[in-house]
Design goal:
- The chain is of the alpha+beta class.
- It folds into three domains: about 80 residues, Rossmann fold (3-Layer(aba) Sandwich); about 70 residues, Dna Ligase, domain 1; about 200 residues, ATP-grasp fold, B domain (D-amino Acid Aminotransferase, Chain A, domain 1, 2-Layer Sandwich).
- Strands 10, 11, 12, 13, 14, 15, 16, 17 and 18 form a nine-stranded antiparallel beta sheet that branches.
- Strand 10 and strand 11 form a beta hairpin.
- The longest helix is centred in the middle third of the chain and has 17 residues.
- The protein binds adenosine-5'-triphosphate and magnesium ion (MG).
- Magnesium ion (MG) binds next to strand 15.
Length: about 375
Amino acid sequence: MQMLVLGAGQLARMMALVAAPLDIHIRAYDVTTKQVLHPVTGERYEQSLQQAIEASDRITAEFEHVPLDVLALCEQSGKFFPSKKAIECGGDRAKEKALLDTAGVASAPYVLVTERLHLDQAINEFGLPLVIKTCQAGYDGKGQWRLKSSEQTDDIWQEMLAFLEKDVTHSIICEKMIPFEREVSVIGARDRQGNVKVYPVTENEHTNGVLTLSVAGIVNQDIQAQAIDAYHKIAEELEYVGVLAIEFFEVDGELLVNEIAPRVHNSGHWTQQGAYCCQFENHVRAVAGLPLGNTDLLRPSAMINVLGQDAIPQQVLATTGARSHWYGKKVKPGRKMGHINVSADTLNELGKRLNELSEHLSEQDYPGVKARANQLLSR
Ligand code: ATP
Ligand code: MG
């Protein structure tokens, strides 16, 4: 089977690596350069998007910021999964909030802002600080403002206005700042018959808006049940096919959705060695119309993002249970270059392995590894 993936980054690459043993062959479409590429070698195919669509049996996406005309072409072919609507909801916070409201899933309270009045309304309703996000442009914490004190309001409004005036199709959302205890996410897959399989909830740490560390196997059953409930509601509302990720804030034992990602997700990379069938394979399976693989936890696992580094100390690979996954990208400050997965039979053993890794990974470049090791060791 030939599968086309919209987007040619690391997610397409990791899909291709697990698709090959299924005899599914992936080509990636880089929406920026408009080239069709091999997602692992980067080799270029002399093919237009239209030709690639025709030559494919199935089409999917690895990210949500796909131009609408490209999405429309793919949807018309009848080969595209999950759907244009699902990708659009992931790429537009206003559509996403409307979806969550319709599905009956709680999320951070919000106001859509197109004029100053709306900003003042948000300040009155939610108080300060406020989280302000562009609806269509953000990723990795980019395209956001934090309004912390009322003296900043006029300045931030000027910046918001400049943004709104630059492109009339763009909009802005103001959210209540949620005083969360932790951030968690759930990844799951839904097939074309509507069967759903959900991985254990992952606990995530962000540094400067970017995911730095995920741990799976530590979340209690009550949180897991809430996450599964939200997952079913959202996936069914979208008649979703493929892997879908949902990020949550946990406040007083309750989950509030932060955002959804209609694709495989960074906080699910641990499934490459911590679950029976990883998120990449389950996405490919769902899109291909194959049965979903088991999503149970095989062993407690953690994932450490490699940001802005093009090498890791060799001792990392000498740590039992640790493996590196490089994305083959040119290094830039803060860029997601790869990740390290580490697993163990018990949480205590995982703590020991993270502790060993923290001796080789600096706190500055790999924040939170040592603290997480200590937390697991003191359980
Ligand atoms: P990514 O695509 O990498 O997940 P993003 O750019 O889409 O990130 P968000 O997930 O919306 O952005 O926000 C990034 C981080 O900012 C969140 O993980 C969270 O730590 C913080 N944050 C966002 N919204 C809120 C909120 N309403 N209250 C408190 N913290 C927030
Ligand atoms: Mg996010």
